[in-house]
Amino acid sequence: MRALITGANGFLGSHLVDVLLESGWQVGAMVRESSNLRFLEGKEIALVFGDVSLSPSELAPRIEGADVVFHLAGVTKALDRSTFFRINQKGTDNLLRACLQAKAPRFVLASSLGASGPSPTAEPITERDQREPVTAYGLSKLAAEHEARRYRDRLAISVLRPGAIYGPRDLELLPAFQAVQRGLAPTMGVVPRMINMIHVRDAARAFMLAGTEERAVGETFLVATHSLTQPELYAHIKTILGKRALLPVPIPTAVVRLAALASSLACQITRKPRIFCHGNVRRFVEGHWAVDGTKARELLGLEPEFDLGPGLADTVAWYRNQGLLGVRPRHLTLE
Question: pTM score, two decimals?
């Protein structure tokens, strides 16, 4: 099997490269010429330079020969709302049109749980629930899904909505581990909210399965393996780091909103986008993000390779190896 992966140099993309190579796939990695390729170094892949802002006719030659296109490229943070839709929605349409021209038969789209939106209760979200995205990012990923569904009669399309992905090479969840390392357990809001977790290797396996399982064609899947509260997550990390106790630091919603507004102002000044900003604040303070992963288990056959404890330990080991927790080693490695 031959795969073309957009965003192959990223956190999830680089692990999907690993999983596919281990399973005997031939892998093409579409990256920008300016991309950091440290997670792809030394791997038996074909680098394909380009990005989804190119026209379909420019993208088509880069796709030719692929049995499955895994579309993972996108933006998770931006300085303005239009950037989300230009890259996440329009970029997806460009790639779909290119797949038709290149006769690539199968397309797997990486959407996001943000496209579902949170639940007002702790009841796990399912694929049947009609939720409303609460961020521009979530809306743009839902718009990308709508683009993909327009091609369902011409391409074999599957959509995956991963939740919070963690594991080696991730930096987005690093602050939570660093807080626990300092003996702190900061939580946003008064009432503990449900979150969800999936180890990056399990998420990558879900994408591979979606690209091969016939029952996945035309389907949308929520991809997460563990739902828990943020204090429960801190308790797991505390055990792994060997901490005896944590100081709870509840952050009132009003303070979170004010801090997010200040972060947004800093983004505009520095012209560097951040995940934590005013446009994303509802993601952090409203609703619950528990996920029912039954459909992915039953149709994809997705069984987690990593339970939460070993998965978090795997993550901590990588952070320590990179000098991100504790003393930085003299020479950094990539694994």
Answer: 0.93
